[in-house]
Structure formats: structure tokens, C-alpha cells
Specification:
- By secondary structure, the protein is of the alpha+beta class.
- It has a single domain, classed as Muramoyl-pentapeptide Carboxypeptidase, domain 2, CATH 3.30.1380.
- 32% of the residues lie in helices and 21% in strands.
- The protein has 6 helices and 8 strands; from the N terminus they run ααβββααβαβαβββ.
- It has an 8-stranded mixed β-sheet with strand order 3-2-1-4-5-7-6-8.
- Strand 1 and strand 2 form a beta hairpin.
- Helix 1 packs across helix 3 and helix 4 packs across helix 6.
- The chain starts with 12 loop residues before the first helix and ends in an 8-residue tail after the last strand.
- The N terminus is likely disordered.
Length: 206
């Protein structure tokens, strides 16, 4: 099955601070895009949506976060970026990873477009970063899953069909889009540009 959403508010503050510090050290060791990524050139429509600010409203189980991780006037906000990495962590392994900013930009652009279209709702996170161990225990997950390198998220938005969400990802995304029939989520990643449809309802995302 796919990675379950977290149903708690997170560990004690000291534990959370330690995990955030670990994520920060990883961030300092990685380039703008995660190792192995081949980010696509940013689409002009996405660039227009993100020109002033890059904000995400995410929900994962009982956790919810609104974070502006970049503005045209102030540049990158590292604290808000780390907060996003926290929410997108591997909840099974309790591990945080430096999420690919191209992935965050795709999600922010999709959400900005939906907001302009009258859909004001958080992006529901079904799965974000996965450790190799979590990925191996996730039914149907690809061995070389983009989740393992912080380049993928499985998402849904209340009131928006998976078909529409997948279409939006294919237009505004900066990598791959996977549509899993009957699973209630769409896979978005920052890898090579590709689109696929999986009709096996038991499979997890790649």
C-alpha cells in the first residue's frame, strides 16, 4: 500500500529540532536540484504564476502547513523550506530529507492556478520523501523511485478530480506525472519529463 499519512502532531520539540538540523545539513550539501535530477526548463505559465512568491498550503493527516519559501523581494526563506521538508518527511522512518525545489515549484504553481480558478484548498500529501527501506516495503513502488531522492510527492486536492489534477501537473509540472486509476492521488515528480497511467489499483506510485 502507499505510505500512510501522519495522524499526529509530530515528535517532541527537541526531537523535531534535531531532525530539522539534520535536514539543514543535507540542504547545505546538495545543489539546487537533488542529485540525479534532470529538471525541465520552467514553463512560461509556471514562471508567471511564481513570479512574485512561492507559497504552499499542505495538509497531511492532522498536520497542516502554510509556507512561503521564496519571494521576489526577499529571495529564499530557509526556515519555511525546512518546514516543508518536515511535512514531506518519511513518517514511517521519521526521517527528513532536502526536498527538490523544482518539485515544490510545481506544486506551488499548480496550487496558484487552482486558487485563481476558485479552488482554495490545501494539497493533501499522501506520500513525500521515502527512505530506501520504506520504499522497498511500499507495494508496487519502483526501486528507483523519485521519492527516495526527495523529488516526488503523491497528492490530491479536495474537489478536484485526479484526472484534472494529472492534466494540470502535465502542463505546469517540471518532470513526471503518474495517474493511478482508482487510487485517489496523482504522482508528481521533478525527474525526466514523462506521463503514465497505471490501471492496477493495487500498485503504489513510482
Amino acid at each position: 500500500m502507499n505510505e500512510p499519512a501522519s495522524r499526529h502532531d509530530g515528535p517532541a520539540p527537541a526531537r523535531r529540532q534535531m531532525l530539522r538540523a539534520a535536514a539543514c545539513s543535507i540542504c547545505g550539501a546538495l545543489p539546487l536540484f537533488a542529485v540525479g535530477a534532470t529538471p525541465q526548463p520552467i514553463d512560461p505559465r509556471l514562471a508567471e504564476l511564481l513570479k512574485d512568491r512561492r507559497t504552499l498550503w499542505l495538509r497531511r493527516g492532522s498536520e497542516e502547513l502554510r509556507a512561503t519559501y521564496w519571494t521576489a523581494t526577499g529571495g529564499r526563506n530557509q526556515d519555511e523550506y525546512l518546514n516543508l521538508c518536515w511535512l514531506l518527511r518519511d513518517v514511517r522512518a521519521d526521517r527528513v530529507f532536502a526536498m527538490d525545489r523544482a518539485l515544490l515549484d510545481s506544486l506551488a504553481g499548480m496550487q496558484a492556478w487552482l486558487r485563481q480558478s476558485g479552488v482554495d484548498a490545501p494539497i493533501e500529501i499522501h506520500s513525500g520523501y521515502r527512505t530506501s527501506r520504506t520504499n522497498l516495503s511500499t507495494e508496487g513502488a519502483a526501486r528507483n523511485s523519485r521519492h527516495v531522492v526527495g523529488q516526488a510527492a503523491d497528492i490530491s486536492v479536495y474537489g478536484v478530480s485526479s484526472v484534472k489534477l494529472a492534466g494540470l501537473s502535465s502542463v505546469l509540472g517540471r518532470g513526471g506525472t503518474g495517474f493511478y486509476v482508482g487510487r485517489g492521488f496523482v504522482h508528481v515528480d521533478a525527474g525526466d519529463e514523462r506521463i503514465w497511467i497505471d490501471q492496477n489499483k493495487k500498485r503504489a506510485s513510482g
